[in-house]
Amino acid sequence: MGWAVACFNAAIDAADAHRVAVINYYQEACCLSEGTERSRYYYQGACSLSETFSENYSPTETCRPCTQCKGLLRMKAPCTESADAICVCDYNYYMDKVTGDCQACTLCPFGHGVWTECTEDMDTVCEPCPEGTYSDQESSMDPCLPCTICEDEEYEAESCTLTSDSLCKVVKVDGNLFTILPPHKQEEVETLLAEKSVEEDMDWCSLAGLLGYQEEHIDTFRQEEHPVKALLSDWGSKDCATLDALCTALRKIKRDDIAERLSPEPTATSAV
């Protein structure tokens, strides 16, 4: 039986590139002596790719079925002839070490940012946004963002909070003068201009004259529910309207107090 063993070993060497379950080798593959019976050793073939696998090199061990990644699992590595598929939790999920189940990644709430992103085996780690940063959405990926610092030609209409960024507006007249002023300043300017001066003449009427309006046009503003707002809104739509021009006219009627209120408020800048 020495020839049979040698033939069997040759078959194993020939199939070295495959993980085999059972050898189905016929006598035609070897040079056998006349009169000998066909070998009962047989080579059944390698494991089916993506369907079965065998981790051990053995003529007797049967191929095992590949693991199927289903439900909340996704395939990290495919099944091969020599290794099973590797399944991990799907994106936006992580493997709970206690239950062994896939759990949804935690979303950091408003005012909190991601310190460590969620991975296949670890949940999200959140942190409260430190001073000078904010987070305006729930997320399992985004960190706290730095607050916007308004440019020199802008003013801060709304301050940065833990849940919202700074709101910066450009200091210029564009279609409507009052779009550059926050609501509380608009009301303040309207009130101050509507007050009567010592000469019993309304300041806004004097201002209207300096801005180029004739008496009949000023009369139309008087008919409005809010004449000062109507005046400034109309004048602000003109090409010649600028904040400097308005402040100059205000100073001519000795209303420097209002001119100063129209100036943008200084914004704090961080020291470098």
Summarize the SSE layout with pairings.
Blueprint: H1 2-14, E1 52-53, E2 64-65, E3 73-77, E4 86-89, E5 93-95, E6 102-104, E7 112-116, E8 125-128, E9 133-134, E10 145-146, E11 154-158, E12 167-170, H2 183-194, H3 203-210, H4 215-222, H5 227-236, H6 243-252, H7 256-262
Antiparallel strand pairs: 1-2, 3-4, 5-6, 7-8, 9-10, 11-12
Helix pairs in contact: 6-7
Please sum up the structure shown.
It contains 7 helices and 12 strands. The protein is an alpha+beta fold.
Descriptive account of the structure:
- This protein has 272 residues and is an alpha+beta fold.
- Among the domains are: 1-66, no CATH class; 171-262, Death Domain, Fas (Orthogonal Bundle), CATH 1.10.533.10.
- The protein has 7 helices and 12 strands.
- The protein has helices at residues 2-14, 183-194, 203-210, 215-222, 227-236, 243-252, 256-262; strands at residues 52-53, 64-65, 73-77, 86-89, 93-95, 102-104, 112-116, 125-128, 133-134, 145-146, 154-158, 167-170.
- A two-stranded antiparallel sheet has the order 1-2. The protein has a two-stranded antiparallel ribbon with strand order 3-4. Strands 5-6 form a two-stranded antiparallel sheet.
- The chain is rod-shaped, with a radius of gyration of 42 Å.
- The N and C termini lie far apart (89 Å).
- The relative contact order is 0.07.
- TNFR-Cys repeats lie at residues 46-87, 88-126, 128-168.
- This is Tumor necrosis factor receptor superfamily member 16.
- Residues 46-87, 88-126, 128-168 form the TNFR-Cys domain.
